[in-house]
From TrEMBL:
Residues 226-236 have a biased composition (Basic and acidic residues). It is a multi-pass membrane protein. Pathway: Lipid metabolism; sphingolipid metabolism; Sphingolipid metabolism. This is Ceramide synthetase. Residues 237-251 have a biased composition (Polar residues). One of its GO terms (molecular function) is sphingosine N-acyltransferase activity. It comes from Mytilus galloprovincialis.
Amino acid sequence: MPVFISWNCVILSIFGVYGVYALWDKPWFSKAMHCWIGWPNHHVTMDMYWYYLIELGFYWSTMFMITVDHKRKDSTEMTIHHLITISLLLFSWCNNFIRFGALVLVVHDAADSLLAAAKMSKYCEKERLTECIYYVFMVVWVSTRLIIFPYVLLYSTDFEIFQVDEPMITLVRQCWQYKIFNVLLHMLLILHFFWTYIIMKAAYLQIKQGEIKDIRSDSEEGNSEGGEKIEDEINRNSDTNNGYISQNNVK
């Protein structure tokens, strides 16, 4: 598991930096409406091509990892999240919504890379560093997932797209592809609220009790002995997922 976490840390950090680097000089990075202006005649640059394919491969790999990871209370939500993400990547690729899809990826990678760094510091038994990175992660998570994602990106798919007076974009707004794409994006937002609750509860327990306890680590099985064994194993490994870190006191 430490090897897998370290690999995740490196990959997600690269994704986060490269995403911003590739989009920095793009006009649609600062104004999402440009994702729709001139559609579908949007040339896919080589950097976007590789960014998309590598991200898609990464999400497929993590999707398979769920099947061998410990069974958690939010395993269903995790599976749904990965299926939605993969579907969005495929939908945006097939319909040339790559500009908008790239923005969604950058917004998500920002918090994921910080969480991966917090996991690595936990494995290195740097408790204070883990807490500092985790709280920075919380700020970035709320900023990207609950502010930028709904108020910038979803606002663009819900309202700005209707402000573009072009024949092709007017046509696509009436197609089922756009409607499904938009529904999947809103489903992501619902999952963001779910995991935000877990993140905030972790911070509350840390402040109140001096440790962050993994409220997701219980097995979904009814056997309490099996559940305790799973929880003990998770506590030893300090395993994490989606903004939650199980943290034990170090004597």
